[in-house]
């Protein structure tokens, strides 16, 4: 994180279309793994909150925005009302 900025961005590119269920599953797995680490280190807990673009991981005054997208060729598979 840059000095004075408490938010970092990460982009995850999925090989398949990122369905709501897939993004929630990834969020849950990240939350589970990060909380295992924080418990082992004796630090505070971490929360994950899903949104329309991915999810945000928040802990101790800092956050990581995880933006989820897919490969360009998969955009053709989107239904017009979804995209």
Automatic annotation (TrEMBL):
Q: Which GO terms describe its molecular function?
A: DNA binding; double-stranded RNA binding
Keywords of the record, alphabetical order, are:
Activator, DNA-binding, Transcription, Transcription regulation
Keyword field contains DNA-binding: yes
Which cellular component, as a GO term, is one annotated location? catalytic step 2 spliceosome
Q: Pfam families in the record, alphabetically?
A: DZF_N
Q: Where is the DZF domain?
A: 1-83
Name the chain's protein: Interleukin enhancer-binding factor 2-like
């Amino acid at each position: 994180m840059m000095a004075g900025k408490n938010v970092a961005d990460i982009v995850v590119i999925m090989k398949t279309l990122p369905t709501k269920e897939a993004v929630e599953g990834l969020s849950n797995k990240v939350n589970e793994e990060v909380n295992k680490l924080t418990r082992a280190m004796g630090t505070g807990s971490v929360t994950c909150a899903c949104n329309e673009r991915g999810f945000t991981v928040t802990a101790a005054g800092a956050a990581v925005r995880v933006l989820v997208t897919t490969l360009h060729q998969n955009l053709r598979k989107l239904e017009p009302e979804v995209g």
